[in-house]
């Protein structure tokens, strides 16, 4: 018998902010104790499957979340119904709920796969690999949604804008060749980008968001640097991708900033060889959405943060669901030193998932 409360306590007490090996061992041991044979693939994903008889009838549904957490580790602490500690809600609370439902449900038609990734908080290579390797009819991605059914999320990428001009003595370099002066034009262009050249407002997700976050340049007060740099964060809506955005932004900046010939401007994505979370929207009328909504009683809405769900939504209806909140009236919860989840909500999420999956796989 799977003990949700004990598993969640052990999971939160297990550090997984630098290395997920111990947390993955806990997960695999729990699955083995339930009589299953989990597989760990070359990307570090942990997979287990139930159902899937010889006739292959019925849908294939996937339960996904992650075992890594952000730094620093915050020790486990319980006060009545409230469990505190790193990962309590992001995402070891959702993991406990998904795992409980996975072990309770006996598919009479179709197949149920548990697919747990190791690097959602960093590179997301695990989810990108699963997108290529799994073929499913629906995905439930565990994240803190306060038991609401989230059918959309913005994509996210980060990058730099480099402005190049002429370096030299502050008394000699002309203003139109000074890249620091070019910062003003770049920042004005960033403010105007979405209205002038962006993808427009999405019916579910609303507007995209482009935010400059870091300025770099210069080493001495009497010398003009040869270049300076702006770092940005982009939250995208469909159909924009990280690559299409970078190309479109560079063309826009060349027209607005470099057209005079005094400066050159370029856009580069940070970690371009790793996958970026993609924007997605799932139709609210999909059976997966309706079934989970009916079981949870929660709202149907967008998710408020980047998530691995976008990788899966390109292939099948995908929802984000789980116990806990990203933030409350006092401020941030997930990733914060005060991270917590209510154990009753973890149990409610498990019951909701069990009911929905049973209806979908009967």
UniProtKB/TrEMBL annotation:
Cofactor entry: Zn(2+)
Claim: Membrane is one of the keywords in the record: no
Family affiliation: Belongs to the peptidase M20A family.
CDD domains: M20_ArgE_DapE-like
Annotated keywords: Hydrolase, Metal-binding, Zinc
Entry keyword annotation includes Transport: no
Protein name: Acetylornithine deacetylase
GO MF term set: hydrolase activity; metal ion binding
PANTHER family named among the record's database cross-references: ACETYLORNITHINE DEACETYLASE, PEPTIDASE M20 DIMERISATION DOMAIN-CONTAINING PROTEIN
Organism this protein belongs to: Natronobacterium haloterrestre
Domain of life: Archaea
């Amino acid at each position: 018998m799977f003990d949700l409360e004990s598993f969640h306590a052990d999971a939160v007490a297990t550090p997984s902010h630098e290395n997920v090996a111990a947390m993955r061992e806990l997960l695999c041991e729990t699955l083995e104790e339930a009589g299953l044979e989990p597989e760990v693939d070359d990307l570090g994903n942990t997979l287990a499957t139930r159902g899937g008889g010889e006739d292959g009838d019925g849908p294939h549904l996937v339960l996904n979340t992650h075992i890594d957490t952000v730094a620093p580790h915050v020790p486990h602490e319980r006060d009545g119904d409230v469990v505190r500690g790193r990962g309590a809600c992001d995402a070891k609370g959702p993991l406990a709920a998904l795992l409980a439902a996975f072990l309770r449900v006996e598919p009479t038609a179709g197949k149920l796969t548990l697919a747990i990734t190791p690097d959602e908080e960093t590179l997301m290579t695990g989810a990108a690999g699963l997108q290529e390797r799994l073929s499913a009819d629906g995905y439930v991605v565990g994240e803190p949604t306060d038991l609401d059914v989230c059918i959309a999320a913005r994509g996210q990428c980060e990058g730099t804008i480099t402005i190049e001009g002429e370096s030299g003595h502050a008394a000699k370099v002309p203003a139109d060749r000074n890249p620091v002066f070019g910062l003003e034009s770049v920042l004005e262009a960033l403010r105007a980008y979405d209205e002038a050249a962006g993808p427009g407002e999405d019916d579910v997700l609303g507007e995209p968001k482009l935010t400059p976050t870091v300025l770099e340049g210069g080493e001495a007060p009497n010398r003009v640097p040869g270049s300076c740099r702006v770092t940005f964060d982009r939250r995208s809506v469909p159909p924009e991708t990280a690559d299409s955005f970078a190309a479109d932004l560079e063309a826009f900046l060349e027209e607005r900033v470099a057209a005079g010939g005094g400066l050159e401007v370029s856009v580069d994505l940070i970690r371009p060889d790793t996958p970026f979370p993609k924007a997605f929207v799932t139709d609210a009328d999909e059976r997966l959405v309706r079934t989970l909504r009916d079981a949870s009683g929660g709202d149907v809405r967008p998710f408020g943060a980047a998530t691995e769900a976008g990788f899966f939504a390109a292939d099948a209806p995908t929802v984000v669901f789980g116990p806990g909140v990203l933030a409350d009236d006092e401020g941030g919860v997930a990733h914060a030193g005060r991270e917590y989840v209510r154990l009753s909500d973890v149990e409610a999420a498990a019951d909701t998932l069990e009911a929905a999956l049973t209806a979908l796989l009967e």
